[in-house]
Amino acid sequence: xxxxxxxxxxxxxxxxxxKVSEGCQNCYAEKMHKRLQAMGxxxxxxxxxxxxxxxxxxxxxxxxxxxxIFVNSMSxxxxxxxxxxxxxxxxxxxxxxxxxxxxxxxxxxxxLKFWTFPLNIWLGVSVELAKYKNRIDDLRATNxxxxxxxxxxxxxxxxxxxxxxxxxxxxxxESGPGxxxxxxxxxxxxxxxxxxxxxxxxxxxxxxxGKLVKMPKIFGSEWAEYPVSx
Length: 230
Known about the structure:
Elements: E1 9-11, E2 14-15, H1 28-38, E3 52-53, E4 68-71, H2 84-95, E5 101-106, E6 121-126, H3 134-140, E7 146-151, E8 168-172, H4 184-196, E9 201-208, E10 211-214, E11 217-218, E12 221-222
Parallel strand pairs: 1-4, 4-5, 5-6, 6-7, 7-8, 8-9
Antiparallel strand pairs: 2-3, 9-10, 11-12
């Protein structure tokens, strides 16, 4: 099981990554990588900056019970150092298991144009600052059946959002040591626009009175919505 509120299970067929934007500054995956490395787990024996596709993971048994599976919580599948052949095999694996939903999130949206996505992939891009709203356009241009935004860690006011063709929005303040400010009005702005566009929204966490609050109430309600099945 996963501790990430909006998924059920994590699957990490790739480990290691490199920083690409401000959202990476306090990368939780890098810290977890070091912890797992110290524990002697084989997938994490290399340095975090070394991207490693784990071919053994392509044989993973997900079980028959349908579930939501977050792919690569510890890396980015669309990193330039992930071989095309590996990603192609991974997509075949996903396509062979239509009973499950596979959630994939990236900051490297410019690489999405090279792929055709199986129907059971929920494809997302991270948008932590307004200057990265171009990632939404890259996402919208894909054939992915379900498209979502992860505005986490939210580091600024995103301003006006074009949510046409977007099926889900996740929002969250940064957590952990050195967490940066996330004003509640930035979250409220996203919630208002998502609800106006009839896009489901999931508010994972917020800074309230100087504290990190999980599943906070925004406008008097918790927001834990999911995409509607197509």
